[in-house]
Write a structure and sequence with these properties.
Layout: E1 2-5, E2 9-14, E3 17-23, E4 28-31, H1 34-41, H2 56-67, E5 71-74, E6 87-88, E7 96-100, H3 126-138, E8 143-147, H4 157-166, E9 170-176, H5 183-191, E10 197-200, H6 208-212, H7 217-230, E11 235-241, H8 249-258, E12 263-268, H9 273-277, H10 286-302, E13 308-311, E14 315-317, E15 325-326, H11 343-347, E16 348-351, E17 357-358, H12 375-378, H13 380-383, H14 388-393, H15 397-403, H16 405-409, H17 413-416, H18 421-425, H19 437-444, H20 447-458, H21 465-468
Helix pairs in contact: 1-2, 10-20
């Protein structure tokens, strides 16, 4: 009896995580012990697993692997594809890179983190971009999302795509304003047998042009959404909220749903980059944002959940699981010594137009980004193994609580663990270990109770981790 790994699974190893099973269809990894890795290594079409020499424990592991769809029976000699075979990388595990391949843009967005209309961060020349692609492959990064600036303004965009594909790096998303999303581009991607999701911002009916600084931008992005839908490319969106467009939230989400957009993420405009430099001052307060989101929750259900939504760290729901919701800022109870302060960045790395490895894109508009290493100077391996970037993403909540005794004593401490670091930098851009006002307002301001009440009224059978938490369980 012979088995082989199914084609979408590969075996890998990383520094401190030597036994890893990766599902190439979605990029997610499962970290294994030595016994399970040994069993899966036998599933290469060359070993008769019915032989008496195969240990009983190994047989049980193989039976379970078949049950969950990782392996399949095969004919003798029907071996693995070369890419599936075990390979160990010399760097820490990073699941995905969000990579700004340029700091240039063809729009004039009023709120740009990196002041892309002025090309403040520029872009690397072709050879350096290709070097980073090679390093991503050498370090075992399995997927990337391409952003900017506007990534499609690069004349070598498709060369970058091809270089990534040559190294078996999945292109998960392309972030774009939509102006250069056309039939020719989508056909080029389709010819390469890839269909990355296009994430295109939409900033409110009647207000998109104003925020993007280009006349006709709303019509352009609507056309791009429709084109992607018609040509079989999934789309998502992000919406930046401010005093002028906040009233369009409901209509905008319904409109995006009508265009087949899969999901939308909303956030208030942050007072950094171009927004700060030009002193627009139309930002929303924390209370205003939370009230806006709370008012929208019943409307979302009344509108039959037109798409998946993530209202900042406030509320998340999807029509794919209509009786489930989350409060994204809420974290499961864990020992502070084990909880990473910036957990998302442990798996998703942001690479700036200058090649800095940063915990998130928001830092690219702040002076503090200069504290983090450049791939072009230190190399990706060192950046994600031993650097200020790694120091941050290895920082535990216990270190934050040591600096903030009042936070440690707070009854919500094991639900927020200090909150978002980018939020903290919005108060003091030189202190990444500062307090995050958004989390304080959410938890201490009673908004979680209000969210639960709003959802229960609109969707009585809805479930959520916050409902089951003793702090809010009735």
């Amino acid at each position: 009896m012979y088995y082989r790994l199914k084609d979408n699974f590969i075996l890998r190893g990383y520094d401190k995580l030597p036994y890893t099973l990766i599902n190439r269809s979605n990029g997610y990894a499962e970290f294994l012990n030595a016994e399970v890795m040994y069993a899966l290594n036998l599933c290469d079409g060359s070993v008769d697993l019915s032989l008496p020499a195969i240990p009983e424990e190994t047989r049980k592991i193989i039976a379970q692997a078949e049950k969950v769809g990782v392996i399949e029976k095969c004919e003798p000699g029907n071996g693995l594809n070369e890419i599936q075979k075990y390979k160990k990388y010399p760097a820490r595990y990073i699941r995905q890179a969000l990579w700004s391949i340029t700091g240039k843009c063809n729009y004039k967005c009023r709120h740009c983190y990196m002041s892309a209309p002025d090309a403040k961060l520029g872009e690397l020349e072709h050879e350096k971009i290709m070097s980073i692609v090679q390093q991503l492959g050498d370090c075992g990064v399995m997927s990337v999302s391409l952003t900017g600036g506007e990534p499609l303004v690069r004349s070598d965009f498709l060369e970058i795509v091809d270089a990534l594909l040559e190294r078996n790096i999945m292109i998960r998303e392309i972030y774009s304003n939509g102006a250069l999303v056309n039939e020719k581009l989508l056909k080029e991607l389709d010819a390469r047998n890839i269909h990355p999701e296009f994430n295109m911002s939409y900033d409110g009916e009647g207000w998109h042009d104003w925020l993007r600084g280009i006349k006709g931008a709303e019509e352009i992005v609507n056309r791009a959404f429709a084109l992607c839908r018609d040509m079989g490319f999934s789309t998502s969106s992000e919406m930046c909220l401010h005093q002028h467009n906040k009233h369009t939230l409901r209509a905008s989400i319904k409109h995006l749903g009508s265009l087949g957009v899969r999901s939308v993420k909303t956030n208030p405009v942050a007072d950094v980059g171009a927004w700060h430099e030009n002193g627009y001052g139309e930002s929303l307060s924390l209370k205003e944002v939370n009230q806006l989101y709370l008012d929208y929750i019943p409307q979302y259900y009344e509108d039959n959940m037109p798409m998946g939504i993530m209202l900042g760290g406030f509320f998340m729901a999807s029509p794919s699981m209509p009786d489930y919701f989350e409060v994204p800022a809420y974290k499961p109870v864990c020992e502070p010594e084990k909880m990473c302060l910036c957990g998302h960045a442990r798996h998703v790395m942001y690479i700036s137009p200058e090649s800095r490895t940063l915990p998130c894109m928001a830092l690219s508009g702040m002076k503090i980004q200069e504290n983090y290493p450049l791939i072009t100077e230190r190399g990706l391996k060192e950046c994600i193994t031993s650097s200020s970037y790694m120091e941050l993403i290895d920082t535990r909540a216990s270190e934050y609580f040591a600096l903030h005794e009042d936070c440690k004593r707070c009854k919500y401490s094991l639900r927020c663990y200090g909150g978002c670091r980018a939020d903290a930098l919005g108060v003091d851009e030189n202190n990444i270990m500062g307090k995050a006002p958004g989390s304080c307002e959410l938890f201490k301001g009673g908004w979680v109770e209000k969210i639960i009440a709003a959802v229960k009224k609109a969707r009585p059978n809805a479930k959520s981790p916050v409902i089951d938490d003793p702090l809010w369980k009735n």
